[in-house]
Design goal:
The chain has 173 residues and is α/β, with parallel strands linked by helices. The protein contains six helices and seven strands. Helix 1 crosses helix 2.
Length: 173
């Protein structure tokens, strides 16, 4: 008599079948997660080889190059004060002076940093390009990355820099 037949005889087959199904689901989920990690890792490695720190930064750099937009990547350093002096390095600075920060995840520390920088340098035009501006600020939150930007006076877009930002006149001239 096999395990299932023994459990059926004892009236416990449903619990056993649920355990088997759960184990199969967990194995499939584990394989999917490993595959996603492998793809993320490959994307990041490719971006690093191209001189960027994330896939979104690489895509943004490629897009700007393709559109023949002049830009600098992580060249500018902005000193800002927290409990001590810190330095912020924007991802991209367009030739018109617009600062572009690309974000996949927009964690609390990043949000606090950008609020402080805006307070200390109100003349700087910092804008965000998100992987997904509709992502929630944290698990269970009602507010999204885009909502945070609206509330704090930052412009944002999803995936690519809008043409309007690229062609906008330099405000500092």
């Amino acid at each position: 008599m096999n395990k299932l037949e023994e459990l059926k005889a004892a009236g416990e087959a449903a619990a056993y079948e649920a355990d088997v199904a759960r184990d199969a689901r967990d194995a499939a989920w584990g394989a999917l997660t490993a595959y996603q990690d492998e793809i993320r890792s490959a994307t990041r490695k490719k971006a690093i080889q191209a001189g960027y720190r994330s896939g979104l930064e690489e895509d943004t750099g490629f897009d700007l190059t393709y559109r023949e937009v002049s830009f600098e990547y992580e060249k500018m350093k902005i000193k800002w004060l927290d409990a001590k002096e810190r330095t912020y390095t924007p991802d991209f600075v367009l030739s018109n002076g617009i600062i572009i920060e690309t974000k996949g995840r927009f964690v609390s520390a990043d949000r606090r940093k950008h609020k402080e920088i805006k307070k200390q340098y109100p003349e700087m035009d910092i804008r965000f390009v998100f992987s997904n501006s509709r992502a929630k600020l944290y698990k269970g939150a009602k507010s999204t990355y885009g909502d945070w930007c609206d509330k704090n006076g930052f412009m944002y877009s999803d995936k690519v820099i809008p043409d309007e930002w690229v062609t906008e006149e330099n405000k500092n001239e």
